Amino acid sequence: MKRFCSWGGGKDSYLAWVRASEADSPLPLLTMVVSGNDSTHQSYGEVVQRQAMALEIPLVSESVSWESYEDRFKDTVGELGADFGVFGTIDVEEHRSWVKSTCSTLDVTPKFPLWGEDPVDLYYEILDRGWEVRIVKLDATRIDERWLGEPLDTDFLEFLLDNSVHPMGEHGEYQTLVLDGPGFNRRVPVEITGSSSLGDYRIAQLDVGEVGENR
């Protein structure tokens, strides 16, 4: 049976991948990198490649624009000939509906291992698993800039809850990258060297190194 995990490089897709892989063998990754003219997009693509190398699993990576996203997603999944895909959506019905509708045209069964679960419980599960997860993008109108580049921890969760922000950032309030955790044979070498602005968002500038030897 051919399958894939829709991969964003952050905590949600990683948790979905871990749960699905615990029930079966590790899933190949599919990532759609929205292209841009700045170094942020290039660095993100490099991190995703390093993650796949550290996990030692296949990666299919496509560079797309927002306008071409859906068509390229359909083309790529169709070329994979997949029977089902795993997605990290938690509680945004609009996104789940889009995935289900898109997959139905390809005869692909979508699976949502995190759907409907308490986001606070999911946050604590990530902490309990001991992953290294860094905040690499945030909405500065909702989240103080001092959190950019910081790891997920209980202090950040307390800040989110105190300010009525979704604990898992499901509505785009913040985004993360996973640098180490179960399945990683070595840490993804990323250092945060600064930040830049894009509208209301602050984005971490990343220095991506070469993946070293296995542990």
TrEMBL record:
It comes from the Archaea. Residues 1-195 form the Diphthamide synthase domain. It holds the Pfam family Diphthami_syn_2. This is MJ0570-related uncharacterized domain-containing protein. It comes from Haladaptatus litoreus.
